C-alpha cells in the first residue's frame, strides 16, 4: 500500500503527460471561448433571426459535450489514465444514451395522449 | 530434475495477471471515480426527466424571459444570460484554481496548494451566493416548489398567445424541475465547499506533507470538477435551450 502512490506518480512522470500550468490555462481559455460562442448564439444570432432555434439547440448540445470532454479529459485527468480505466468509466455512460432515446420517444407519445 | 520452470508455471507480469492494480490508480481515487459515475447517473436521470416533460409539454416558459434580470442589482429586464453567465464564469474559474492546486501538489508546494485551495473555496462560496440570489429572485416572483406566480406575472414568461391553463401547468413543471435540479446541484457545490475547507485545513496541518503525497487534493479535485461538469449541462438545458 505504501509504495503504491509513488508508483502511480512514477508512471505519470515516465510519459511526461501531466497537466502543466500552460496546458491548464489553455484548457481554461478553450472552455471560456466555447461559453462565449454559446452566448453569441443565444444573445445575437437567435434574437436577430440569423439562426433558427431548432438549429441553435443541437449546436448548444454539441458545444456542451465539447466542454464536458475538455473538463473530463484534462481537468479530471482522464485522458492520461490507463485505457482500461477510461473504458471502465466511459462505457457505462453509454447506457444514458439508451435512457435519452427511450424517454424522448415516450414523451412524443405523451403529446398524442394529451390530445 | 531441471531447474527450468515449465511455461505454464512461469509468473505472468501482464497488467491483468494479478498482484497489482491494472488501472494503475490509487484505491481512493478509483472509488471517487466510481462514486462520480453513479452521481452522473443520478443527474442524467433528473435532466432526462426534465427533457421528457418539456418535450411532451405544449408550451414552456421561455428561458430568456424568465431569466432576464440581474438579481442583486436594479436591472429587472432585458439582460438575459448575464447573471447566469457570471455564475458559469465563477464556477469554471474555481475549477481552474482547483487544477492549479493539484499541479502545485505534484510539486509538493504546500503554500501554493493552500493558496489555490482557498481561491477554490471562495469561488464555490461566490457561486452559492449567486444561486441564493437567483432563487430568491424567482421566489419573489412567486416561483417555488409547486408554487407559481399569479396570472398577471405569469404571462410575461410566455411568447405568443398561450392559454392560461397551459401556462399554469408548464410553469408548475418548470418550477419543480428547476428548484429540484439546481437545488441538487447546489447541494453538491455546498458539500464540495465543505470538503475543500476540510482538505485545506489538513494541508495547513501538514497531513499530506507527512504522507509524502498530495493525492487527496486530486480526489477532492475530481469531485469539484464533476460539480462544474454538471453545471455545464444544467446551464445548457435550463438557460440556453
Overall description:
The complex is a heterodimer of chains A (115) and B (241). Chain A is mostly helical and 115 residues long. Chain A is 80% helix and 0% strand. Chain A contains 4 helices and no strands. Chain A has helices spanning 4-15, 21-45, 53-75, 83-114. In chain A, helix 2 (21-45) runs antiparallel to helix 3. Chain B has helices at 27-56, 63-66, 82-106, 110-141, 151-154, 164-205, 207-211, 215-240. Chain B is built from 8 helices and no strands. Chain B has one domain (23-240): Four Helix Bundle (Hemerythrin (Met), subunit A). The model of chain B has no long low-confidence stretch (mean pLDDT 92). Chain B is mainly α and 241 residues long. Chains A and B meet through helix 1, helix 2, helix 3 and helix 4 of A and helix 1, helix 3 and helix 8 of B.
Key features of this structure:
heterodimer; A: 115 residues; mainly alpha; 2 domains; 4 helices; 80% helix; flat; disordered N terminus; B: 241 residues; Four Helix Bundle (Hemerythrin (Met), subunit A); 8 helices; elongated
Describe the secondary-structure layout.
The complex is a heterodimer of chains A (115) and B (241).
Chain A: H1 4-15, H2 21-45, H3 53-75, H4 83-114
Chain B: H1 27-56, H2 63-66, H3 82-106, H4 110-141, H5 151-154, H6 164-205, H7 207-211, H8 215-240
Helix pairs in contact in B: 1-6, 1-8, 3-4, 3-8, 4-6, 6-8
Amino acid at each position: 500500500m505504501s509504495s503504491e502512490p509513488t508508483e502511480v506518480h512514477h508512471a505519470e512522470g515516465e510519459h511526461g503527460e501531466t497537466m502543466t500550468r500552460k496546458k491548464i490555462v489553455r484548457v481554461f481559455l478553450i472552455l471560456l471561448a466555447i461559453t462565449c460562442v454559446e452566448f453569441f448564439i443565444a444573445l445575437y444570432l437567435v434574437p436577430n433571426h440569423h439562426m433558427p432555434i431548432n438549429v441553435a439547440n443541437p449546436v448548444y448540445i454539441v458545444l456542451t459535450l465539447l466542454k464536458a470532454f475538455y473538463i473530463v479529459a484534462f481537468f479530471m485527468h482522464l485522458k492520461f489514465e490507463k485505457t482500461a480505466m477510461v473504458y471502465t468509466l466511459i462505457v457505462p455512460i453509454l447506457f444514458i444514451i439508451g435512457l435519452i432515446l427511450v424517454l424522448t420517444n415516450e414523451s412524443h407519445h405523451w403529446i398524442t395522449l394529451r390530445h | 530434475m531441471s531447474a527450468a520452470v515449465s511455461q505454464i508455471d512461469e509468473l505472468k507480469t501482464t497488467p491483468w495477471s494479478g498482484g497489482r492494480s491494472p488501472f494503475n490508480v490509487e484505491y481512493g481515487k478509483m472509488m471517487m471515480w466510481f462514486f462520480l459515475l453513479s452521481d452522473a447517473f443520478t443527474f442524467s436521470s433528473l435532466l432526462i426527466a426534465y427533457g421528457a416533460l418539456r418535450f411532451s409539454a405544449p408550451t414552456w416558459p421561455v428561458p430568456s424571459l424568465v431569466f432576464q434580470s440581474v438579481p442583486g442589482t436594479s436591472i429587472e429586464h432585458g439582460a438575459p444570460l448575464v447573471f447566469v453567465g457570471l455564475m458559469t464564469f465563477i464556477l469554471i474559474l474555481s475549477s481552474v484554481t482547483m487544477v492549479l492546486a493539484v499541479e502545485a501538489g505534484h510539486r509538493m508546494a504546500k503554500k501554493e496548494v493552500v493558496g489555490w485551495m482557498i481561491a477554490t473555496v471562495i469561488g464555490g462560496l461566490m457561486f452559492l451566493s449567486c444561486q441564493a440570489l437567483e432563487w430568491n429572485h424567482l421566489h419573489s416572483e412567486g416561483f417555488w416548489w409547486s408554487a407559481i406566480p399569479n396570472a398577471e406575472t405569469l404571462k410575461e414568461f410566455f411568447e405568443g398567445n398561450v392559454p392560461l391553463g397551459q401556462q399554469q401547468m408548464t410553469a408548475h413543471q418548470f418550477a419543480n424541475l428547476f428548484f429540484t435540479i439546481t437545488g441538487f446541484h447546489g447541494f453538491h457545490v455546498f458539500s464540495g465547499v465543505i470538503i475543500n475547507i476540510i482538505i485545506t485545513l489538513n494541508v495547513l496541518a501538514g497531513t499530506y506533507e507527512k504522507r509524502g503525497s498530495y493525492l487527496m487534493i486530486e480526489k477532492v479535485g475530481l469531485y469539484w470538477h464533476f460539480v462544474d461538469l454538471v453545471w455545464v449541462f444544467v446551464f445548457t438545458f435550463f438557460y440556453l435551450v
